[in-house]
Amino acid sequence: VQLQESGGGSVQAGGSLRVSCTASGFSFVNSDMGWYRQGPGNECELVSTISTDGNTYYADSVKGRFTISRDNAKNTVYLQVNSLKPEDTAVYYCAADWAGGLWVGPPRCWGQGTQVTVSS
Fold first, then answer.
1. Quick one: pLDDT at residue 23?
2. How far are the Cα atoms of 27, 35, 79 from residue 67, in angstroms, in the given order?
3. Phi-psi region for residue 19, left (φ > 0), alpha (ψ -120 to 50) or beta?
4. How far is CA 5 from CA 1, 61, 64, 93, in A?
5. Which of 58, 61, 72, 102 could lock onto 97 through a cystine, CB 3.0 to 4.6 A?
6. Rounded CA gap, 77 and 36, in Å?
7. What percent of the chain is helix, strand and coil (3-state, nearest 5)?
8. DSSP strand E in 25-119: where?
9. What are the φ/ψ torsions at residue 109 (nearest 5 degrees)?
10. From CA 45, how far away is CA 109, in angstroms rounded?
11. Which of 109, 56, 116 is nearest to 84 (CA)?
């Protein structure tokens, strides 16, 4: 199983980025996908998820600003992050749930991730 995050960067408050995660080694089309993040001094938290049929979840802190999407043909999940705030500064990690129940378990900030830094 491989999950390769990309697309992070440094932006000013109010800016936007699109982070991506390309998956391999498992059935992407049959897996729910999601994003976690961990900011400096903060615990890992679940940010957003998208199910195999497109149902989405957003943490209250990002609702209305972030949009998750997926492209099954490219085995890729995206997180469009708009109206960024300094508190969005974090390493963003993607995750795959093919067995069910991942999102209700302990948060998983695993792997390389992609850094998003928002300056005020």
1. 98
2. 23, 11, 6
3. beta
4. 13, 21, 22, 7
5. 102
6. 13
7. 10, 50, 40
8. 32-38, 45-50, 56-58, 66-71, 76-81, 90-97, 114-119
9. -95, 80
10. 8
11. 116
3-state secondary structure of 28: helix
For residue 6, CA distances in Å to 24, 36, 55, 109, 120 come to 15, 14, 23, 15, 23
- Sequence-distant (6+) residues with CB within 8 A of 78 are 18, 19, 20, 21, 68, 69, 70, 71
DSSP structural state of residue 65: T
Per-residue pLDDT band for 87 (boundaries 50, 70, 90) equals very high
pLDDT in tens, 92-117: 999 999 999 999 999 999 999 999 99
